[in-house]
From TrEMBL:
The HXXXXD motif is essential for acyltransferase activity and may constitute the binding site for the phosphate moiety of the glycerol-3-phosphate. The keyword Lipid metabolism applies. InterPro entries: AGP_acyltrans, Plipid/glycerol_acylTrfase. Pfam families: Acyltransferase (PF01553). Residues 306-320 have a biased composition (Polar residues). It comes from Tetrapisispora phaffii (strain ATCC 24235 / CBS 4417 / NBRC 1672 / NRRL Y-8282 / UCD 70-5). This is 1-acyl-sn-glycerol-3-phosphate acyltransferase. GO terms for biological process: phosphatidic acid biosynthetic process. PANTHER family: 1-ACYL-SN-GLYCEROL-3-PHOSPHATE ACYLTRANSFERASE (PTHR10434:SF11). Keywords: Acyltransferase, Lipid biosynthesis, Lipid metabolism, Membrane, Phospholipid biosynthesis, Phospholipid metabolism, Transferase, Transmembrane, Transmembrane helix. SMART domains: PlsC (SM00563).
Length: 327
């Protein structure tokens, strides 16, 4: 069984590589064409959507978004937890128009992918050179403010491929940027994807990634000396939401939920014996159609007899059921 799982994992990984490669080629042409018509900054949005639909179709992974209206509050800086290659799926579904993603500088030199990212205006950050990264972020801040755009940042700085509901410590660059520009921070929390994609255990399942977009957090009154504490509070808030979201919905868990729901719908609800007595009494005391004076006494006598008979039968049934339960 383990061998079959590995075959499936490598097959799906190959499909994933094909999707990324095709999307990168599309992104190169989209960036060139959109730059010519003055729409360069929607190239990443268009390419992200193309990637999302291809990935969902071929690999059976979808993204469910809670509070998507918070994605439209531009200008802002989106901060999201960073876990695996499936983060591209999240960007593919959530990425708003006029938004730029940050990426490590080494990706700039990857064929097709790096070309597309460079042409579409990706903000590259050099992990080994903090000073150059600060300059790049300041230049990007100008574009965000003037053009009312957004920046998508992974403040952990690298992937947290944990099988636990946790995050790496946040780097503060994005928060300093937000404080200087007085633009809000919008946290984007992604459920733990280790049960959908896990290279260590050769896992590549179908299912749903659950994303919650939190309300914008203002930085209008934030002072520079308060940024570190502010970043920690944002991370605490995101970590709390991550623990509530938990892990992704795998295809197996979705099937179990659907089966349980179907069985619950098919099985009639159990009725308490006391409720049966009340129902019998109620049905027998429902209003009767009008009768003539000559037959009124007879109707009353019949009605009393029915009530006595129904009550005796019902209490007899209750007594039998109770005795069975004590065996």
């Amino acid at each position: 069984m383990g061998f079959i799982n590995k075959i499936k994992f490598y097959y799906k990984s190959f499909l994933s590589f094909i999707v990324v490669s095709c999307s990168s080629v599309v992104g190169v042409f989209a960036s060139i064409i959109l730059s010519i018509v003055g729409k360069k900054y929607i190239a990443q949005w268009a390419t992200a959507r193309f990637f999302y639909y291809m990935y969902r179709t071929l690999l059976g992974i979808d993204v469910k978004v809670t509070s998507p209206q918070n994605l439209e509050n531009l200008p802002c800086i989106f901060v999201s937890n960073h876990q695996s290659a499936l983060d591209i799926m999240v960007i593919g579904k959530c990425f708003p128009r006029n938004c730029t993603v940050t990426a490590k500088k080494s990706l700039k030199y990857v064929p097709f992918l790096g070309w597309y990212m460079s042409l579409s205006g990706t903000l590259f950050l050099d992990r080994k050179n903090g000073a150059s990264s600060i300059v790049a972020m300041k230049n990007s801040l100008f574009n965000v403010l003037v053009q009312k755009r957004a920046l998508w940042v992974f403040p952990e700085g690298t992937r947290c491929s944990s099988e636990q509901l946790e995050m790496l410590p946040f780097k503060k660059g994005a928060f300093h940027m937000a404080q200087q520009g007085k633009i809000p921070i919008v946290p984007v929390v992604v459920s733990n994807t280790s049960n959908l994609f896990n290279k260590k255990h050769s896992i590549f399942n179908r299912g749903n990634i659950v994303v919650k977009v939190l309300d914008p957090i203002s930085t209008q009154d934030l002072k520079s000396e308060e940024v570190a504490d502010f970043a920690n509070k944002v991370q605490e808030k995101m970590l709390k939401e991550l623990k509530e979201l938990g892990f992704c919905e795998t295809s197996a868990s979705i099937k179990r939920t659907d089966t349980t729901t179907t069985e619950a719908a098919d099985d009639p609800p159990e009725t308490d014996e006391n409720e049966e007595v009340e129902e019998v009494s109620t049905s027998n005391t429902s209003p009767e159609p009008p009768v003539s004076e000559g037959t009124e006494a007879t109707v009353v006598e019949d009605k009393v007899s029915q009530l006595k008979s129904a009550s005796e039968n019902s209490f007899s049934t209750v007594g039998n059921d109770d005795s069975d339960d004590t065996k």
